[in-house]
């Protein structure tokens, strides 16, 4: 296997490998400085690749009218006024208010309801538990398209089309993935803690509220942040439930889609697309702020997803 | 993680002899009641409702469904757009899923090899995942512009003539794949977590046997993280079959669509039929066909996958 060995990372003599003191170098870290340097170059290149669209977004948002489709990374003239004008052209403040409100309600509701249900599945032994939990997991496989039409009709029958309620209403009943995630956390709580609390006279709700919940705060935050993002991103729901009304009632995704059409060059927008870029940047910032705040929870939450299988 | 492993046998062991405490049972059902209500209304109820509508003609004005038998399903076969959109969606999934798996695995392997600065890179790579899909689409609309877009400028630098990404029917799906790859970091993080769990002595033994990095990757890394690969393939496939936002924003937002045939995805057509044409019966039938397809694909993947996935629990034989 001399061909593969010549790649350079592992081609030092075996004796050296055994002689090298353990612990000084993490096992997966390449030895030679050249390889480590190359690795860094590749990682930095990928970082640039991932960050470039943001730079482009920032640049485009500062371009003057009609030049936004020009192929220049640095605008010929910087039009900071775009940032002022966009507030007059688009009801951004309304969109932000609507989206933040809906996302907070949606995330709060689903985190609380999923915690309650997850505790039910984690703590108690009751007939039908395995069957019901199997059903919880099965619903994760259900394509949203199947329930799209009937759910619309349900909300229509309740006279709630055009209100915010359809965008978070079903969150009141928990959500399969979050129930699963929180149940895993509750299962990790030592049972002795609950038994001790029982002896001290705590009721079942007390166990949940005073013992389980305080310990599950990190998981609760993961769920909150995940659902906040999902809600913040929800274009299809807004298209279905809010599209008919005035632009003031739009959420951020619906608003941007509306602006994309409004300022599209094919639609008589004459290259005022820079306003879309400003708006896109402004609506990304809150998510990035949330991420900066809850980064650890985010990445941990995603990482635990893969351990389901 | 250990919680899953240890709780599973306890949960499946038949507790038949164990008496269920009536008070505890009542409390338990009270705790899971929200989910039961939601399940009955929004899952079972919705599915039954949807099935009924799919066999009927729904009149929005009078709120009535007139049974029409199989006519909606027959209509699916007669509508060339349904087949076209299905084909587009499957082709897209076949391109996107392998590309995402390979790219995410590459990034995770690279990140797994550095210790200093790994957190910084991981965070930078994760940023696109935090960008709302509308913002991503509005950016890529410019980046993928055939004449002035950054992607083609980059290619021109190497004297490669870039395609008309969003106009040329052949490049519509690769365009969306490219956008998807930009936000691949969720998958990457799952791989990264799996890579961290591979025991290091396996590599040491392989090194003693003279295995090179490529050999080690395919003989140790891939089998050891096969569970994560399997999970990601299933999740990404389900997502790909339902792709909506990108296709809607790039091609169907306004009605002047340059390449209608190649950019019509199943979920977009379903959405149009339901909420633009208000043909709920037809849309419901489409939804059920999608449901069956997703189930079949997942089932095949689970069948095939189980043969190749290495589970840490079953070490014997």
Automatic annotation (TrEMBL), chain A:
<feature type="transmembrane region" description="Helical">
    <location>
        <begin position="273"/>
        <end position="294"/>
    </location>
</feature>
<feature type="transmembrane region" description="Helical">
    <location>
        <begin position="202"/>
        <end position="226"/>
    </location>
</feature>
<feature type="transmembrane region" description="Helical">
    <location>
        <begin position="95"/>
        <end position="124"/>
    </location>
</feature>
<keyword id="KW-0813">Transport</keyword>
<dbReference type="InterPro" id="IPR000515">
    <property type="entry name" value="MetI-like"/>
</dbReference>
<keyword id="KW-1003">Cell membrane</keyword>
<protein>
    <submittedName>
        <fullName>Multiple sugar transport system permease protein</fullName>
    </submittedName>
</protein>
<feature type="transmembrane region" description="Helical">
    <location>
        <begin position="33"/>
        <end position="59"/>
    </location>
</feature>
<dbReference type="GO" id="GO:0005886">
    <property type="term" value="C:plasma membrane"/>
</dbReference>
<keyword id="KW-0762">Sugar transport</keyword>
<feature type="domain" description="ABC transmembrane type-1">
    <location>
        <begin position="96"/>
        <end position="294"/>
    </location>
</feature>
<feature type="transmembrane region" description="Helical">
    <location>
        <begin position="131"/>
        <end position="155"/>
    </location>
</feature>
<dbReference type="InterPro" id="IPR035906">
    <property type="entry name" value="MetI-like_sf"/>
</dbReference>
<keyword id="KW-1133">Transmembrane helix</keyword>
<dbReference type="Pfam" id="PF00528">
    <property type="entry name" value="BPD_transp_1"/>
</dbReference>
<keyword id="KW-0812">Transmembrane</keyword>
<dbReference type="GO" id="GO:0055085">
    <property type="term" value="P:transmembrane transport"/>
</dbReference>
<keyword id="KW-0472">Membrane</keyword>
<feature type="transmembrane region" description="Helical">
    <location>
        <begin position="161"/>
        <end position="181"/>
    </location>
</feature>
<comment type="similarity">
    <text>Belongs to the binding-protein-dependent transport system permease family.</text>
</comment>
TrEMBL record, chain B:
<protein>
    <submittedName>
        <fullName>Multiple sugar transport system permease protein</fullName>
    </submittedName>
</protein>
<feature type="transmembrane region" description="Helical">
    <location>
        <begin position="27"/>
        <end position="52"/>
    </location>
</feature>
<dbReference type="InterPro" id="IPR035906">
    <property type="entry name" value="MetI-like_sf"/>
</dbReference>
<feature type="transmembrane region" description="Helical">
    <location>
        <begin position="175"/>
        <end position="195"/>
    </location>
</feature>
<comment type="similarity">
    <text>Belongs to the binding-protein-dependent transport system permease family.</text>
</comment>
<dbReference type="InterPro" id="IPR051393">
    <property type="entry name" value="ABC_transporter_permease"/>
</dbReference>
<feature type="transmembrane region" description="Helical">
    <location>
        <begin position="280"/>
        <end position="300"/>
    </location>
</feature>
<keyword id="KW-1133">Transmembrane helix</keyword>
<feature type="domain" description="ABC transmembrane type-1">
    <location>
        <begin position="86"/>
        <end position="301"/>
    </location>
</feature>
<dbReference type="InterPro" id="IPR000515">
    <property type="entry name" value="MetI-like"/>
</dbReference>
<keyword id="KW-0812">Transmembrane</keyword>
<keyword id="KW-0813">Transport</keyword>
<keyword id="KW-0472">Membrane</keyword>
<feature type="transmembrane region" description="Helical">
    <location>
        <begin position="90"/>
        <end position="111"/>
    </location>
</feature>
<keyword id="KW-1003">Cell membrane</keyword>
<feature type="transmembrane region" description="Helical">
    <location>
        <begin position="216"/>
        <end position="241"/>
    </location>
</feature>
<dbReference type="GO" id="GO:0005886">
    <property type="term" value="C:plasma membrane"/>
</dbReference>
<dbReference type="Pfam" id="PF00528">
    <property type="entry name" value="BPD_transp_1"/>
</dbReference>
<feature type="transmembrane region" description="Helical">
    <location>
        <begin position="132"/>
        <end position="155"/>
    </location>
</feature>
<keyword id="KW-0762">Sugar transport</keyword>
<dbReference type="GO" id="GO:0055085">
    <property type="term" value="P:transmembrane transport"/>
</dbReference>
């Amino acid at each position: 296997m001399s061909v593969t060995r010549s790649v350079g990372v592992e081609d030092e003599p075996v004796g050296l490998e055994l002689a090298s003191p353990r612990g000084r170098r993490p096992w997966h870290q390449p030895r030679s400085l050249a390889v480590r340097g190359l690795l860094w170059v590749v990682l930095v290149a990928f970082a640039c690749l991932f960050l470039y669209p943001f730079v482009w977004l920032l640049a485009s948002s500062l371009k003057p009218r009609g030049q936004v489709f020009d192929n220049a990374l640095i605008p010929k003239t910087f039009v900071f006024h775009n940032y002022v004008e966009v507030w007059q052209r688009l009801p951004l403040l309304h969109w932000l208010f609507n989206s933040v409100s809906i996302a907070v309600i949606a995330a709060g509701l689903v985190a609380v309801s999923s915690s309650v249900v997850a505790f039910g599945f984690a703590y108690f032994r009751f007939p039908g538990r395995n069957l019901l939990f199997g059903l919880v997991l099965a619903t994760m496989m259900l394509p949203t398209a199947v329930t799209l039409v009937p759910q619309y009709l349900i909300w229509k029958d309740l006279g709630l089309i055009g209100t915010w309620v359809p965008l978070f209403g079903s969150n009141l009943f928990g959500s399969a993935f979050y129930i699963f995630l929180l149940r895993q956390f509750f299962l990790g709580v030592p049972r002795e803690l609950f038994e001790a609390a029982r002896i001290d006279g705590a009721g079942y709700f007390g166990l949940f509220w005073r013992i389980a919940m305080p310990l599950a705060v990190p998981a609760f935050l993961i769920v909150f942040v995940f659902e906040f993002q999902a809600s913040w991103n929800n274009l299809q729901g807004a298209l279905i439930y809010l599209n008919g009304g005035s632009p003031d009632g739009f959420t951020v995704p619906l608003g941007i889609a509306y602006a994309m059409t409004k300022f599209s060059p094919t639609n008589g927008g004459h290259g005022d697309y820079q306003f879309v870029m400003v708006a896109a940047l402004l609506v990304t910032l809150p998510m990035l702020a949330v991420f900066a705040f809850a980064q650890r929870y985010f990445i941990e939450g995603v990482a635990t997803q893969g351990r389901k299988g | 993680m250990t919680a899953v492993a240890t709780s599973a046998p306890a949960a499946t062991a038949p507790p038949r002899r164990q008496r269920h405490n009536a008070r505890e049972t009542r409390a338990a059902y009270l705790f899971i009641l929200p989910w039961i209500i939601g399940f009955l209304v929004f899952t079972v109820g919705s599915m039954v409702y949807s099935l009924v509508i799919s066999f009927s003609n729904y009149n929005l004005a009078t709120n009535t469904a007139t049974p029409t038998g199989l006519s909606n399903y027959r209509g699916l076969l007669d509508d060339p757009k349904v087949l076209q959109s299905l084909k587009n969606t499957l082709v897209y999934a076949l391109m996107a899923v392998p590309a995402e798996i390979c790219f995410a695995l590459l990034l995770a392997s690279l990140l797994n090899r550095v210790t200093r600065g790994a957190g910084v890179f991981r965070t930078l790579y994760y940023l696109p995942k935090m960008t709302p899909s509308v913002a991503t689409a509005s950016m890529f609309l410019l980046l993928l512009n055939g004449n002035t877009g950054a992607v083609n400028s980059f290619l021109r630098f190497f004297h490669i003539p870039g395609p008309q990404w969003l106009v040329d029917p052949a490049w519509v799906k690769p365009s969306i794949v490219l956008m998807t790859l930009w936000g691949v970091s969720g998958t990457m993080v799952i791989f990264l977590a799996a890579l961290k769990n591979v025991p290091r002595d396996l590599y040491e033994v392989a090194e003693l046997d003279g295995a090179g990095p490529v050999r080690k990757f395919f003989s140790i890394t891939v089998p050891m993280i096969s569970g994560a690969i399997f999970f990601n393939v299933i999740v990404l496939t389900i997502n790909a079959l339902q792709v909506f936002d990108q296709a809607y924003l790039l091609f169907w937002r306004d009605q002047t669509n340059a390449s209608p045939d190649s950019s019509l995805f199943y979920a977009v057509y379903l959405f149009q039929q339901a909420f633009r044409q208000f043909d709920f019966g037809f849309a419901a039938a489409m939804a059920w066909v999608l449901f069956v397809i997703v189930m079949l694909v997942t089932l095949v993947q689970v069948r095939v996958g189980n043969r190749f996935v290495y589970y840490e629990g079953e070490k014997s034989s």
